[in-house]
Known about the structure:
This is Copia protein. It comes from Petrolisthes cinctipes. By secondary structure, the protein is of the alpha/beta class. It has one domain: Nucleotidyltransferase, domain 5. The protein is built from five helices and five strands. The protein has helices spanning 6-21, 83-109, 123-130, 147-153, 178-183; strands at residues 38-44, 55-62, 68-75, 116-120, 157-161. Strands 3-2-1-4-5 form a five-stranded mixed beta sheet. A hairpin with a 5-residue loop joins strand 2 and strand 3 (68-75). Helix 2 (83-109) crosses helix 3. The longest helix has 27 residues, at 83-109. The protein is globular.
Amino acid sequence: MARPTQAHLGLAKHVLRYIKGILDYCIKFSKSGHPLELVGFCDADWGGSEDRRSISGYTFQLNKCGPLISWKSKKQNTVALSTCEAEYMAITNAMQEGKFLRQLYSDMNGCDKEAVSLYVDNQGALALAKNPVHHQRSKHIDIKYHFIRSEIEQGIIDFRYIPSEENISDMFTKPATKNKMVKFGVVKGET
């Protein structure tokens, strides 16, 4: 860093205190009576960064309340013109990871490939994904994002709606409050 300031030092100390506080955290896998199901959550903000590009975030876990096995937060490559479009792009990113994890799980267990359950908190994006009709407002969306529709037809992804406050991937796209982090088991504490 060229010219560190007291503010930078304060931020660095904050990060170190956070790391020190979570040293004992771990991911635990335990046997359950339920068959394993690959479950994903995805979300996007809309134009939240200075260059107005949106942030996509997703998580995948084994079973809805199981430990996270994959997660990512990334700035989208293009500017989305609406919240629906930003969420639709986030779904595409999550689906690519979901397809990979689905194949990996199938290869490791020698079992049939079940559909990945992907929870999304934007009903407009879900409608756009499930309805293969060309919409006037979405005809500018790049064709690479429309592969979602073929994945639905092939039974690879099963979309489900989830309210924003229940969507764990929300913390990858917006500032996460302590209450939200405690709720989803990221930090210990009481809400």
